[in-house]
Amino acid sequence: MAAMGVSVLDANNKLRDMGDIIEEVGGKWSTWSREQQIAFAQVAAGTRQYNNLIALFDNWGMYEKTLEESKNALGTL
Asked: Which of 19, 54, 57, 66 could cross-link with 29 by S-S, CB 3.0 to 4.6 Å?
Protein backbone atom coordinates (compact mmCIF):
# COMPACT_ATOMS: atom_id res chain seq x y z
CA MET A 1 0.00 0.00 0.00
CA ALA A 2 2.83 2.36 0.83
CA ALA A 3 4.21 1.92 -2.68
CA MET A 4 0.94 3.36 -3.98
CA GLY A 5 1.09 6.35 -1.67
CA VAL A 6 -1.30 5.07 1.00
CA SER A 7 -0.05 4.60 4.53
CA VAL A 8 -2.08 2.67 7.07
CA LEU A 9 0.06 4.00 9.90
CA ASP A 10 0.17 7.55 11.24
CA ALA A 11 3.27 9.52 12.26
CA ASN A 12 3.33 7.65 15.59
CA ASN A 13 3.18 4.22 13.87
CA LYS A 14 -0.39 3.70 15.07
CA LEU A 15 -3.11 2.42 12.75
CA ARG A 16 -4.98 5.21 11.02
CA ASP A 17 -8.76 5.34 11.08
CA MET A 18 -10.14 3.14 8.28
CA GLY A 19 -12.50 5.90 7.18
CA ASP A 20 -9.54 8.22 6.61
CA ILE A 21 -7.75 5.58 4.56
CA ILE A 22 -10.86 4.92 2.45
CA GLU A 23 -11.28 8.67 1.79
CA GLU A 24 -7.63 8.93 0.75
CA VAL A 25 -7.87 5.96 -1.59
CA GLY A 26 -11.12 7.29 -3.06
CA GLY A 27 -9.32 10.48 -4.02
CA LYS A 28 -6.48 8.58 -5.70
CA TRP A 29 -8.45 5.71 -7.25
CA SER A 30 -9.04 7.24 -10.69
CA THR A 31 -5.33 8.06 -11.08
CA TRP A 32 -4.28 4.41 -10.75
CA SER A 33 -4.16 1.88 -13.57
CA ARG A 34 -6.69 -0.97 -13.45
CA GLU A 35 -3.90 -3.34 -12.46
CA GLN A 36 -2.95 -1.09 -9.54
CA GLN A 37 -6.60 -0.83 -8.49
CA ILE A 38 -7.00 -4.60 -8.47
CA ALA A 39 -3.72 -5.14 -6.62
CA PHE A 40 -4.69 -2.59 -3.97
CA ALA A 41 -8.19 -4.04 -3.58
CA GLN A 42 -6.84 -7.57 -3.15
CA VAL A 43 -4.39 -6.46 -0.47
CA ALA A 44 -6.94 -4.30 1.34
CA ALA A 45 -10.01 -6.53 1.13
CA GLY A 46 -8.68 -10.00 0.46
CA THR A 47 -9.44 -12.38 -2.37
CA ARG A 48 -13.09 -12.91 -1.45
CA GLN A 49 -14.14 -9.29 -0.97
CA TYR A 50 -11.94 -7.28 -3.32
CA ASN A 51 -14.66 -7.06 -5.98
CA ASN A 52 -16.90 -5.25 -3.50
CA LEU A 53 -14.13 -2.77 -2.74
CA ILE A 54 -13.54 -2.18 -6.45
CA ALA A 55 -17.27 -1.52 -6.88
CA LEU A 56 -17.17 1.08 -4.10
CA PHE A 57 -14.24 2.96 -5.60
CA ASP A 58 -15.50 2.65 -9.17
CA ASN A 59 -18.66 4.42 -7.94
CA TRP A 60 -16.86 6.89 -5.69
CA GLY A 61 -18.73 9.89 -7.10
CA MET A 62 -22.04 8.30 -6.14
CA TYR A 63 -20.69 7.64 -2.65
CA GLU A 64 -19.61 11.27 -2.23
CA LYS A 65 -22.94 12.58 -3.54
CA THR A 66 -24.92 10.33 -1.19
CA LEU A 67 -22.71 11.26 1.75
CA GLU A 68 -23.22 14.97 1.05
CA GLU A 69 -26.99 14.50 0.75
CA SER A 70 -27.09 12.71 4.09
CA LYS A 71 -25.10 15.50 5.73
CA ASN A 72 -27.49 18.11 4.30
CA ALA A 73 -30.49 16.12 5.52
CA LEU A 74 -29.29 15.96 9.11
CA GLY A 75 -32.17 16.92 11.37
CA THR A 76 -34.90 16.69 8.73
CA LEU A 77 -37.56 14.06 8.68
From this structure: 57
Separation between Cα atoms, residue 63 and residue 36, nearest integer Å: 21
How many Cβ atoms from other residues are within 10 Å of residue 50's Cβ? Answer: 18
- Are 64 and 57 spatial neighbours (Cβ–Cβ below 8 Å)? no
User: Is residue 76 over pLDDT 80?
Assistant: no
| Spatial distance between the Cα atoms of 62 and 39, rounded to a whole number of angstroms | 23
3-class DSSP assignment, residue 41 = helix
Does the pLDDT of residue 77 top 70, yes or no?
A: no
